[in-house]
Amino acid sequence: MNINKTLSFSFYIRITMVISIISLLLFNGFNSYKIASLNSKVNERQNEASWFVYQLIKEYANLTTQLRLEPIEIKKLNLSYDLTWSRYDILLNSKVSKSYFKEKKYNLFFQREFDKFKYLEKSLKLIERGAIKKDLVIKEFMLNYSRLIEFTNSNLRIASPILTQNQVNISHLIVIQNITIISTTILSLALLFLITNDLLTKSRWKIKDTMTNCYNRMSLFDFLTHDEKNNNSEFCIVALKITNLKDINRRFGFNHGDEILIRVANKINSIIEQEQRTKKPMTFRLTEKTFIILKENEDIKHDNSFIRSFDEKAFLSDTELIPEVSLITLSNIPKNKIIESLSLLDIR
């Protein structure tokens, strides 16, 4: 039951983490798209508005050139003025550039300059009639042109409120994106840890009894048949059988029987841990009620001391439900004879 709960809990954790990772990846993708969209939107609007300004400057420069020509060509001068006038009109009324400059609050400057430019049309008429000196008109146009150049260099190319605001927004999005990347990495590492832990747990369940944490019967036979180490060694075998386990289960319930098994296994493991040898004995749960302890023979005197550790009175002194224990010991058993020796014991 505990194993099933553990597996179920671990499964739901993994599912939750997978969903979280997928959600973070989708959010990260949306975030990247939004950043790209903002950059594209800002670049498109700024490029179009800037292009209109540069076209205005180009036509204005051509107009000032026409004013300086000697002799002045009135038709070309008027055409240049009309083209410059139309550039102002496009810049102020085009949908993209109009909204762009309005948000930047630059539309007032261009509208004011356009009004001054329209006022200078009267001066061109006076030049055509010869009623005013050309140098005075050139000076007025050059003042307007200089203000336009200065404003463009100081604001349009260097400062852009919309660009600045969008850069702030993009910076925030990048911070969020970095957080999602870090979160995704942490979740991925945690998921990798859970998967690795599950694999190790499943591997451990294959070789160990889940209730008592002792090696299971499969591990015993694998050790005896496939493990080539200690092939020439002799072993001391301790077979410990709880003879009244079935009666305990019947009278007090399986929970009490399981508790007895766990306590017996813990007692065996505590005795083994007290062994001051590098080669610790190995404990196997061979059947429902039988434990097998294998220990390499090193000297008979020490083996007898080890066996006495399992004396019934000392071994079961701290249990509430006293089980009946049958203890069988064999010494100097070669490894290749252990299976045969176990089959001769009454341990079923």
UniProtKB/TrEMBL annotation:
Keyword list, A-Z: Membrane, Nucleotidyltransferase, Transferase, Transmembrane, Transmembrane helix
Transmembrane annotation, as ranges: 12-30, 174-196
Residues covered by the GGDEF domain: 208-298
Pfam family for this entry, one: GGDEF
Enzyme Commission designation: 2.7.7.65
InterPro entries given in the database record: GGDEF_dom (IPR000160), Nucleotide_cyclase (IPR029787), Rev_trsase/Diguanyl_cyclase (IPR043128)
GO terms, molecular function: diguanylate cyclase activity
First-level EC class: transferase
NCBIfam families attached to this UniProt entry: GGDEF
Protein name from the UniProt record: Diguanylate cyclase
